[in-house]
Every structure is written in C-alpha cells, then in structure tokens.
Design brief:
InterPro entries: LPFR_strepto (IPR049849). This protein is mostly helical. The protein has a domain of about 30 residues. The radius of gyration is 19 Å and the shape is elongated.
Length: about 45
C-alpha cells in the first residue's frame, strides 16, 4: 500500500517538474537557436 502511494506521489512530482521546467526549456531553446544562427553555418566534424 505504501509503495502504491509512493508511486502516485512520484508520478505527481514528475508531472509538476515537467510543467515547471517547460518554460525554461523553451527560453533556452530560443536563445540557443539565436546564438547558433548568429554564429553562422555549422561545420560538421568528421
């Protein structure tokens, strides 16, 4: 029974963490993409 409660709390915590980090990921992707575009075309290392 305690394991089931722990699993539910873990799932809720994971969902909350995902919702909280989404805006920060979006901002990081936005600025990361802008920085990549400003630096010019990428060269692939082989």
């Amino acid at each position: 029974m305690f394991r089931a409660i722990a699993d539910v709390l873990r799932a809720i915590g994971a969902a909350i963490a995902t919702v909280v980090t989404l805006p920060f990921r979006a901002v990081a992707r936005l600025f990361g993409g802008a920085a990549d575009a400003a630096s010019g075309p990428r060269r692939r290392r082989v």
